[in-house]
């Protein structure tokens, strides 16, 4: 029982850190991009236009997002967005200090594969309440990095320097946003003011190589525990991970949509 608890907390650190890393690429927060890139004036090939009066507006907007993802993943120069497949993150420090488990250290040289295969499951646009919801499905997320962690699991010292791998399967996210429509360089654009993210996943695998100073038996034990308890661990962390995911999603969405006037994709007539 106690040992199980320890493992879960340990996994907590790993999982939430994995997610925090994604956030690190988009660390500067702002609502509307204050850069010098003017809003688009002509609809590009990757932008599917919808009309507000369309009785199937939600499906139309779903297609707009669906069509955009592959381009967003590669980066769209004309609206100034950077590629996010794979995501490279230099370093993520972590300090998890209180109680029976302490861990400090960092993951470095992170490479995240998978987000470019995102599918838009549904969207729901409510222009009266200024609400926008979208469901996203990511079939696989793979993270490779170096890790350097030091701490204690109860009486067990945990020291590890090596390679870390995470593999997440069938990640479904449910995103709820509050939106508004400010002017950016004299064009009306859509911006998310707040975002809430819930998610599910079908499976997760974690591997920390060279744990416990290369002690293969202890290392294997911890990794096995992590994997056996993966879904419970994630369940425990949903709220925290969701907060971190929302930061990433909001940034990506606002970076893109603050350069795309609504007249090109959410038309009055
Ligand atoms: C995207 O999906 C395709 C087809 O399933 C797969 O071959 C490819 O590896 C995936 N790409 C990433 C980055 O996961
Ligand atoms: C901004 O848009 C308004 C109305 O569309 C127009 O009258 C005005 O000239 C524009 N201002 C600039 C600086 O482009
Ligand atoms: C992941 O989703 C696909 C498509 O819905 C499904 O065929 C597959 O069985 C799922 N995998 C797991 C591990 O749930
Ligand atoms: C990420 O999650 C951690 C742990 O819950 C939280 O303290 C932090 O505020 C979150 N970061 C963001 C940007 O939401």
Automatic annotation (TrEMBL):
SMART domains per UniProt: JHBP
UniProt keyword terms in alphabetical order: Biological rhythms, Signal
A cellular component annotation (GO) from this entry: extracellular space
A single GO BP: circadian rhythm
UniProt cross-references to InterPro entries, sorted A to Z: Haemolymph_juvenile_hormone-bd (IPR010562), To_sf (IPR038606)
Pfam families: JHBP
Signal peptide region: 1-18
Record carries keyword Signal: yes
Domain of life: Eukaryota
Family classification: Belongs to the TO family.
Protein name: Haemolymph juvenile hormone binding
Species: Cinara cedri
């Amino acid at each position: 029982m106690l040992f199980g608890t320890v493992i879960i907390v340990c996994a907590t650190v790993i999982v939430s850190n994995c997610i925090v890393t994604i956030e690190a690429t988009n660390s500067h927060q702002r609502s509307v991009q204050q850069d010098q890139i003017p809003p688009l004036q002509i609809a590009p090939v990757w932008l599917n236009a919808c009309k507000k009066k369309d009785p199937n507006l939600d499906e139309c907007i779903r297609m707009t997002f669906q069509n955009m993802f592959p381009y967003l993943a590669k980066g769209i120069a004309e609206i100034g967005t950077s590629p996010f497949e794979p995501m490279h993150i230099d370093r993520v420090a972590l300090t998890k200090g209180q109680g029976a488990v302490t861990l400090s250290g960092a993951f470095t040289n992170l490479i995240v594969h998978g987000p470019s295969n995102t599918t838009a499951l549904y969207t729901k646009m409510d222009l009266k309440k200024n609400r926008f919801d979208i469901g996203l499905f990511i079939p696989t997320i793979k993270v490779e990095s170096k890790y350097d962690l030091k701490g204690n699991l109860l009486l067990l010292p945990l020291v590890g320097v090596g390679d870390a791998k995470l593999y997440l399967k069938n990640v479904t996210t449910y995103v709820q946003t509050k939106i508004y429509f400010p002017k950016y360089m004299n064009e009306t654009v859509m911006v998310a003011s707040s975002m809430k993210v819930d998610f599910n996943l079908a499976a997760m695998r974690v591997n920390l190589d060279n744990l416990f100073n290369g002690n293969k038996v202890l290392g294997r034990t911890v990794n096995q525990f992590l994997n056996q308890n993966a879904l419970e661990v994630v369940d425990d962390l949903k709220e925290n991970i969701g907060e971190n995911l929302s930061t990433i999603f909001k940034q990506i969405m606002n970076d893109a949509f603050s350069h795309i006037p609504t007249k090109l994709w959410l038309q009055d007539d």
